[in-house]
Amino acid sequence: MMMMALVRSYKQSNSICRALLYSTETNIHQNFKRNDDNLYRRISPVGDPNISMIPILDQWEKEGKTVIYTQLFLIIKTLRKFNRFTHAFQLSEWMANRKGSKLTAPSAAIHLDLLSKAQGVEQAEQYFNSLPDDVKKLQVYSALLNCYAATKAVEKAEAAAEKMKQSGMMTTLSYNSMLNLYKKIGDYEKLDKIHQEMLDMGVPCDKPTYYIRLSAYALTSDIEKMEKVLKNMESNSNLGIDWNAYVIASGGYIKSGLPDKAFEMLKKSEEYIHGNSKGAAWENLISTYASIGKKDDVYRIWNLYKTSWSKVYNRGYTSIVRALVRLNDIDGAEKVLAEWESQKLSFDFRIPNMLIKAYCTKGLLVKAEAYVDRLVGMGKQPPASTWVLFVTAYTKDKEMEKAVEMLKKCVAAEDMRGCKLDQDVFTACVEYLKENGDLTMVEEIEKVFKDKIRVPLVSFAESNDDEVEESESSLMK
Q: Were both Cys, which of 102, 118, 248, 332 would link to 89 (CB 3.0–4.6 Å)?
């Protein structure tokens, strides 16, 4: 019942799955803006995935308010868009466990997709196998195929696709999952082959089909093919080309050492920004302008972002701080972070970590520690990923006593998410502890960092900041 009101035919269900997997247009703020006290406003600020959504739902009902499934479905989609898979899965599971809820193929497909992202593809497989046969329809198989493709499980994805072909269930969405898989693993021969198969079978190409191929050719610097796909998109009046196509193309030109062409594409991209896609567009443009050193354009887009959007959230501040740090504009990053703190948004240490990393890289360790101390004084608890930045910096400066001091704070941190330590830094700390007879600490850090050691391509002394994520991420996340 909870999904049948939304999905009443194959065409509608396929559109919902596509929206779940590809949509960048959902803006839930508009759906609820008329009511200041709504469920989304209670759920949205809770950014920590370790905090359950269930008490919020239960409290809502205790207050005598009704959880409207169609609105909860929109919240699930929005959480997924912002990579809050654990919370989206919790909401989906809560819906499924309600009395009177009916298991349908669309609801199972959505739940399977979220389960894979929140708990892993093996859990998704178990869920799929537990479903009754009458629920294992197109939507569910498509979701399973997408899970395999997203985790680069090539053999399982190809087996699932073959079974779907034999059952006549391969749709545009399913082919797109395979195209995206081959793009991710760099098998462009199979990518071209599966695209040709789509054409031969009369399966229509949609916007994601074009975007995947455009991105694939941009990633490999195949400018000729990239430009051909872009030209086809521009000439297809039914496609509705948007800003992201030109951002992707700019990435191809950047990779090919053609910054002027990249700049041209970014300017063209701005002409297509409208509606609910503005936030993602501004974030991508900020990042890409920074990658070609266009500082003035970074600030211009940031100001457009703030004036054209009712409120800028953490994603927006993440994009501008990362860009300014990349441009070595530390003063600018400090000012933006001060503004971010004043907005009283959900505190996410990954945002100040970008500035802390810049301080550490530049040897401004006293300044970095003072910044962290101020945040701690505000009641914020740094995650292990913050202390790792200090461990790396002090090890690089051969200040091993300070490095180990920070390593102990890292081990004691409650939040270990995203914590990785380079192999050479880890080895240097272990050797120092052994030399000083602290074998207990050696045993402790070996236990804590068992699965958190990163073997870098270069020494920590030579490593640079991470590459900017490819611009198509707003489509494929």
A: 118
d(CA 380, CA 350): 12
Spatial contact of 205 and 198, defined as CB atoms under 8 Å apart: yes
Q: State which H helix or E strand residue 422 sits in.
A: strand 421-422
Contacts (Cβ under 8 Å, ≥6 apart) of 110: 3, 16, 17, 20, 76, 92, 143
For helices 384-396 and 423-435, what crossing angle results, to 10°?
70
Residue bearing tokens 């629920």: 135
Higher pLDDT, 131 or 24: 131
- Average of per-residue pLDDT values in the chain: 85
CA distances from 437 to 404, 411, 424 (A): 13, 18, 20
Residues 6+ apart with CB under 8 A from 409: 382, 387
Q: For residue 32, which phi and psi values (nearest 5 degrees)? A: -115, 5
- Let me know: does 386 contact 353? Beta carbons within 8 Å: yes
The yes-or-no verdict on residue 197 having pLDDT over 80 is yes
- What's the confidence (pLDDT) of residue 179? 97
- Residue 454, helix vs strand vs coil: strand
Which residue in the block uniquely carries the two structure tokens 């200041």? Answer: 36
What are the helix (H) ranges across 120-171?
A: 121-130, 138-150, 154-166
Q: CA separation (Å) from 255 to 52, 153, 268, 463?
A: 42, 27, 18, 20
Both tokens assigned to 422 = 């380079």
CB 316 within 8 A of CB 279: yes
Provide the pLDDT confidence category of residue 327 given band limits of 50, 70 and 90: very high
Name the amino acid, one letter, at 324. Answer: L
For 379, other C-beta atoms within 10 Å of its C-beta total 7
Does the pTM of the predicted model rise above 0.90? no
Neighbours of 356 (CB within 10 A): 26
422 phi and psi angles, rounded to 5 deg: -65, 145
Structure tokens at 446: 């070996």
Question: Percent of the chain scored above 90 by pLDDT?
Answer: 64
| Distance of alpha carbon 377 from alpha carbon 375, whole angstroms | 5
Neighbouring residues of 292: CB distance < 8 A, sequence distance ≥ 6: 254, 259, 262, 263
- Residue 421's SS3 state is strand
Which residue type is seen at 386? T
The CA–CA distances, whole Å, from 294 to 53, 70, 291 equal 41, 43, 8
User: Per-residue pLDDT for 333 more than 70?
Assistant: yes
pLDDT for residue 470: 32
